[in-house]
C-alpha cells in the first residue's frame, strides 16, 4: 500500500491550508534565517530540518509521498493548529512565535 493510499483528502487539504507560504517563500525564508555573519548554509541544508522537509513535500505529488512525509504533514498540521486560532485569520504575535511558525511554512500575518 502506497503512502498516498493512507493519506486522507482531509490531511492533504489541511496541510496545504496551514502551510500558507509558497515553496519559493519558504525557501527564501529558510535561506535568510540560516545566513550568518561569516557563513551561510548550502541552500538544500538551510533552515530547520522540519522546514526543509515541508519544502520537499510541497514539491511532491500526492502519489509520491512516503510514510515519513505523511508523518511530517500530520506533525506540521498539529503544531500550527495548536498555536493558532481555528480561523487562521492574520494576527501579529511575538517574533519568536512568528518565526517558529514560518519555519514550518506558515506565516501568521498572511491572509487565510
Helical/strand content category: mainly alpha
| Strand-residue proportion | under 5%
H/E element string? HHHHHH
Q: How many β-strands, per DSSP? A: 0
Main β-sheet description = none
Q: How does this model look, in words?
A:
The chain has 112 residues and is mostly helical. Helices cover 54% and strands 0% of the residues. It contains six helices and no strands.
Please outline what is shown here.
By secondary structure, the chain is an all-alpha fold. The protein has 6 helices and no strands. The model is unreliable at 34-40 (pLDDT under 50).
What distinguishing features does this structure have?
mainly alpha
Give the helices and strands, then pairings.
Elements: H1 3-6, H2 9-18, H3 23-34, H4 49-58, H5 67-83, H6 95-102
Helix pairs in contact: 2-5, 3-4, 4-5
Amino acid at each position: 500500500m502506497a503512502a498516498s493510499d493512507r493519506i486522507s483528502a482531509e490531511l492533504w487539504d489541511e496541510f496545504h491550508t496551514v502551510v500558507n507560504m509558497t515553496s519559493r517563500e519558504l525557501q527564501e525564508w529558510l535561506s535568510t534565517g540560516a545566513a550568518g555573519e561569516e557563513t551561510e548554509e548550502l541552500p538544500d541544508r538551510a533552515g530547520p530540518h522540519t522546514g526543509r522537509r515541508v519544502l520537499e513535500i510541497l514539491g511532491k505529488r500526492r502519489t509520491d509521498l512516503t510514510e515519513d512525509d505523511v508523518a511530517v504533514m500530520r506533525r506540521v498540521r498539529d503544531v500550527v493548529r495548536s498555536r493558532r486560532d481555528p480561523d487562521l485569520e492574520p494576527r501579529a504575535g511575538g517574533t519568536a512565535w512568528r518565526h517558529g511558525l514560518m519555519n514550518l511554512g506558515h506565516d501568521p500575518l498572511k491572509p487565510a
